[in-house]
C-alpha cells in the first residue's frame, strides 16, 4: 500500500503538538468536553440520546424486606415420608406418643409444603408449613410444631 506523504495528517506529526500550537489546543480533556462520562446529562446530552439511550434509568427492583433475603429451604411431604422411612429402617427414629419426631429446623430446612403424601405418623418441628401440609400430616396421625410464622 502506498503511503501518501503529502496529506495534512502526515505533516501534523510534529515533535509535540502536531501543528496545533503549544498552549493546549486539541491536547487536554477540555477539547472532548471533560474526562470520561462528564456531561452526559448536560452538554453531551444529544450524544447520549443518539448513541446510549439507556445510559440512565433503572431496571428491575431490589427487595428490601428481610423475609425475601432469608434463604428458604423447602421440603415436601414425599421427601419427609422418605426421611421417616430411613429413620425407621436405620433404627434412629425417636418416638413420642406413637409419632416419629423429625426436627427439620436442626437440619436447616425452613418450610414444609404439601406435595405428595405421608404414610407415617410424624411430629414435625419446623419454622413454617403450608396449610395443605398441615392437613395431610394431621390426617396421617401426626402433628406440626411451628417455631414461628403462620404460613
UniProtKB/TrEMBL annotation:
Gene Ontology CC terms: cytosolic large ribosomal subunit
InterPro entries, per database record: Rbsml_uL15_N (IPR027386), Ribosomal_uL15 (IPR030878), Ribosomal_uL15/eL18 (IPR021131), Ribosomal_uL15/eL18_sf (IPR036227)
MF terms in GO: rRNA binding; structural constituent of ribosome
Domain called Large ribosomal subunit protein uL15/eL18: residue spans: 74-145
Biased composition annotated in UniProt, kind: Basic residues: 1-16
The keyword Hydrolase is assigned to this record: no
Subunit (UniProt): Part of the 50S ribosomal subunit.
Family designation: Belongs to the universal ribosomal protein uL15 family.
Protein role: Binds to the 23S rRNA.
Name of this protein: Large ribosomal subunit protein uL15
Source organism of this protein record: Ignisphaera aggregans
Name of the gene encoding the protein in the UniProt record: rpl15
Amino acid at each position: 500500500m502506498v503511503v501518501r506523504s503529502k496529506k495534512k495528517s502526515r505533516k501534523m506529526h510534529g515533535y509535540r503538538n502536531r501543528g496545533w500550537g503549544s498552549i493546549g489546543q486539541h491536547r487536554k480533556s477540555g477539547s472532548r468536553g471533560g474526562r470520561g462520562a462528564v456531561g452526559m446529562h448536560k452538554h453531551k446530552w444529544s450524544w447520549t440520546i443518539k448513541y446510549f439511550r439507556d445510559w440512565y434509568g433503572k431496571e428491575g427492583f431490589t427487595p428490601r424486606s428481610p423475609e425475601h433475603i432469608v434463604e428458604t429451604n423447602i421440603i415436601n411431604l414425599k421427601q419427609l415420608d422418605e426421611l421417616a422411612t430411613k429413620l425407621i429402617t436405620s433404627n434412629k427414629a425417636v418416638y413420642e406418643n406413637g409419632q416419629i419426631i423429625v426436627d427439620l429446623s436442626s437440619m436447616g430446612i425452613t418450610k414444609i409444603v404439601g406435595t405428595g403424601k405421608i404414610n407415617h405418623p410424624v411430629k414435625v418441628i419446623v419454622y413454617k408449613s403450608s396449610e395443605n401440609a398441615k392437613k395431610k400430616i394431621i390426617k396421617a396421625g401426626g402433628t406440626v410444631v411451628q417455631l414461628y410464622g403462620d404460613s
